[in-house]
Structures are given as structure tokens and as C-alpha cells.
Design a protein that fits this description.
UDP-glycosyltransf_plant, alpha/beta, UDP-glucosyltransferase activity, 4-stranded parallel beta sheet, Rossmann fold, 137 residues
Length: 137
């Protein structure tokens, strides 16, 4: 029985992370072959580790990968446009997301223990842009 690995890439923020973890848990309860790797961006608005670490610790088939912190956009951009600020922050994450996903796919291929079968991006406008930028790079 081949194991299936899903990679979830939520936008930073407690609401995105919590709902993504809950979705992962529901999927895991439906099929014992599934495992989920959750890529966690360090939010520019504060840490969510106190909430996400216990959630993922309770389920061994959910692996939380903390992406390295990136330089935050200018506070002036935040004042001008919250959406532009978040988009700029996420744009800075693209190289790390791409590298981490590539490493996970390679690791699964080499070990043969599982196969990456899908990705899940948050799908608001910013998430859609991130998905397109990662896929086209």
C-alpha cells in the first residue's frame, strides 16, 4: 500500500493555519495512507507557534515545516495597502517555498516511503498569485 503525501501551503495568519490543520486532520481520518506536510511562513503580524505546534503534535502524520524568516516589507507599504504588503511578504517567500517543495518531492522519491500526490494553496487573490508564480518559475 503506497503512502500519499500532500503539501499544504497556507497564507500566514492564525485563521489560515488553523483551518488548514483542521482540513488536514479530516483528510487523515478518512485514509490511513495520507500524510500532510504543512509549510508555515513566519507571519509578519506575530507568531502562531503556540497554537500550531500543539495541533500538529497531536497528529504524527502532520509534519510542520517552518520556512526561514524573510525580510518584512516596509511599514509604509502596510499603511498604504495591506494587500500589497501581504503580497510583497509572500513574494519574498517564493524561493523558500519552491526549494522546500523540491526537497520534499526529492526526499519522497529517494526514500520510496511515500509519493507527493498534491498541493494545496490558500486560494484568496494573494494565494492565487503565489501559486501562479511558483508554478511558472
Amino acid at each position: 500500500m503506497e503512502k500519499a503525501e500532500l503539501i499544504f501551503i497556507p497564507l500566514p495568519g492564525i485563521g489560515h493555519l488553523v483551518s488548514t490543520v483542521e482540513l488536514a486532520k479530516r483528510l487523515l481520518h478518512r485514509d490511513e495512507r495520507i500524510s500532510v506536510t504543512l509549510l508555515s511562513m513566519k507571519s509578519p503580524f506575530g507568531s502562531v507557534d503556540a497554537y500550531t505546534k500543539p495541533l500538529t503534535a497531536s497528529e504524527p502524520r502532520i509534519r510542520l515545516v517552518d520556512l526561514p524568516p524573510v525580510t518584512h516589507p516596509s511599514p509604509d507599504l502596510f499603511i498604504k495597502s495591506l494587500e500589497a504588503y501581504i503580497y510583497s511578504f509572500i513574494e519574498a517567500q517564493i524561493p523558500q517555498v519552491r526549494k522546500t517543495v523540491t526537497d520534499i518531492v526529492s526526499s519522497c522519491s529517494v526514500s520510496g516511503s511515500s509519493r507527493v500526490v498534491g498541493y494545496r494553496f490558500d486560494m484568496d487573490r494573494t494565494g492565487q498569485r503565489l501559486k501562479v508564480r511558483i508554478q511558472n518559475s
